[in-house]
Specification:
membrane, two-stranded antiparallel ribbon, 260 residues, Cell_Envelope_Assoc, elongated, Rossmann fold, alpha/beta, transmembrane helix
Length: 260
């Protein structure tokens, strides 16, 4: 049993290290890659050094209690992470169901490079375009401000992408170009909704990445959107679980900051 546990730790740790190293090698250095990489190092270290660790712990009862306590804490944290992933999958599945008629479609920004949407943002826009085609009566809002040293707002770049890629007329798209966070995305979009006589209590679609749906819905509800419907765009498999991992901590941070 002990030998099997060592093999499992080494195997899991190696997978985490290889996965995160590959992502960091292409400039994806963030919380969702660095922390799993460190966890992988700990797993491999424990697997390879298990005999020595056991000898040290056998001679020091206090250290042994601390060691078991840390593993217990990790186990409880891991269970909370699995619950988050389960809730996220439920939220994503809900967004895949047939949507009722919505009064507006808010597309949340996710970064641009050289005046073009990042792949993640392009996926959100492509997902939104399908809904726009299905519900031509809905007001369209692209939401995202102007980044550092950028000359165009993210909302403007998003609107241009929808027009050029999906032939959606620019005069149908309203741009919220001041926001720098999800909280501001939804708060500033309310102004546009109010200008067009749309109440926050009617069904409103919020298009975002699959990993971001729980937090976006929670913030929307906190701001008074009573029927927010999150529509999830797919995240590439190569970064999906790292993004979910990062979002777990972002969700906790948002809760501490009382965003919802």
């Amino acid at each position: 049993m002990f030998g099997l546990l060592r093999i499992v730790l080494i195997a899991l740790g190696s997978i985490l290290i290889i996965d995160c190293t590959a992502l960091m090698a292409v400039d994806k250095v963030n919380f969702g890659t660095v922390l799993p990489f460190l966890i992988g190092v700990v797993f491999v270290g424990h697997g390879l050094g298990a005999p020595l660790i056991i000898k040290i712990l056998a001679k020091n009862p206090l250290l042994r209690r601390i060691w078991y306590g840390l593993w217990l804490a990790f186990g409880l944290w891991f269970i909370s992470f699995l619950l988050f992933v389960y809730s996220l999958q439920q939220q994503i599945a809900q967004g895949r169901q047939d949507l009722p008629p919505v009064a507006a479609i808010i597309i949340l920004g996710s970064g641009t490079v050289d005046g073009k949407p990042t792949p993640t943002l392009a996926s959100r826009l492509d997902t939104a375009a399908t809904l726009i085609e299905q519900q031509p009566q809905a007001l369209i809002i692209t939401s995202g401000g102007m980044g550092y040293e950028h000359t165009r707002s993210e909302a403007d770049i998003m609107a241009t992408y929808l027009a050029q890629t999906h032939d959606i007329p620019l005069d149908r798209i309203y741009q919220e170009g001041k926001s720098t966070s999800t909280e501001e995305n939804l708060a500033y979009s309310q102004i546009i909704l109010e200008q067009h006589g749309i109440d926050k209590e009617v069904p409103i679609a919020i298009v975002t990445s699959d990993f971001h749906t729980i937090r976006a819905a929670a913030i929307a509800l906190h701001q008074g959107y009573t029927q927010p419907i999150t529509l999830a765009s797919p995240t590439p498999l190569s970064i999906r679980y790292n993004a979910w991992f990062r979002e777990y901590f972002a969700f906790g941070s948002g809760w501490l900051l009382q965003e919802y």
